[in-house]
Amino acid sequence: MFTGIVTDVGEVLAIESRGELKRVRIGCAYDVEKIDLGASIACGGPCLTVVDKGVQNGRNWFDIDAAAETLALTNVGGWEVGTKVNLERSLKIGDELGGHIVTGHVDGLATILDVRAFDGMARFEIRAPRAIARFIAPKGSVCLDGTSLTVNTVDGDVFSVLLIPHTLQVTTWGQRKAGDKLNIEADLMARYAARLVEAREKTAD
C-alpha cells in the first residue's frame, strides 16, 4: 500500500530480457541495507518486488522483475537505460498518509494531450482509458506515474491536473511532454462507489 507521495527519483541502470520477463536495475538514494528482498516499491506507479539489491561504484541499486502483464499494461516496457522513475516505498504503520490510498495496481495507460507552463507551475491535459474515465471526478484523486494528484477538470475521458513547482522539481513530471504515456490508477474509493451504484441499479431492476 502506498500514498502516491514520491520519495525518490530513481534511474534505470540496466535492463535484461529473460523471455517474457524483464529484470530491471534501478539506481536510488534509498539505503539498500534497510530494503528487504521481497519488499514492495512503487516504481513509476506499479508495485514491484525487490529481487536483488546492492551498491556499485558508490551507487545504491535494487532489481525488480517485470512480468508480461506489467509490461503490457504499463509503460515499464518502454523504459530504457537512463529513464527516470518516481519511487515510493510501501507504507509502514504510523507513516503519514499525505496523498491518498494507492495500491500500485495500475489500470492502464493515460496519454498527455497538452502541457501549459505558467508561473513555475504546469497544467497537464490528459486522456484516460475509457474504462477508467468514469472513476475520475473534479476534486477527486488520481495516481499518475506513482504521483497522487488532484483532478481539476473533467470533460468526457479528458481531465486536467495542475502541478506546483515543488512537484515538478522532485518528480519526473518536469520532463513530461505531450504524447507521453502515464501509468494511471483510479482512486480506490471512487471504484468502490461506482461498484455500489451498479449493485443498487441491478437490485432496482
User: Can you tell me the CATH architecture of the largest domain?
Assistant: Beta Barrel
Tell me the fraction of residues in β-strands, as a range. Answer: 35-45%
Q: What share of residues is helical? A: 10-25%
Shape: globular
How many helical elements? 4
Q: Structural class, from helix and strand content?
A: alpha+beta
How many separate domains? 2
| Order of strands, widest sheet | 1-2-5-4-3-6
What composes the largest sheet? Answer: 6 strands, antiparallel, barrel
End-to-end span in angstroms?
36 Å
CATH class wording of the largest domain: Mainly Beta
Gyration radius over CA: 17 Å
CATH topology of the largest domain: Elongation Factor Tu (Ef-tu), domain 3
What does this structure look like?
- The chain is α+β, with helices and mostly antiparallel strands and 205 residues long.
- It folds into two domains: 8-89, Beta Barrel (Elongation Factor Tu (Ef-tu), domain 3); 108-196, Beta Barrel (Elongation Factor Tu (Ef-tu), domain 3), CATH 2.40.30.20.
- It is 16% helix and 44% strand.
- The chain has helices at residues 68-73, 130-133, 165-170, 188-204, and strands at residues 8-18, 21-28, 40-43, 47-56, 59-66, 84-89, 108-118, 121-127, 141-144, 147-155, 158-163, 181-186.
- The strands form two sheets. Strands 1-2-5-4-3-6 form a six-stranded antiparallel barrel.
- The radius of gyration is 17 Å and the shape is globular.
- 31% of the residues are buried.
- The mean pLDDT is 93.
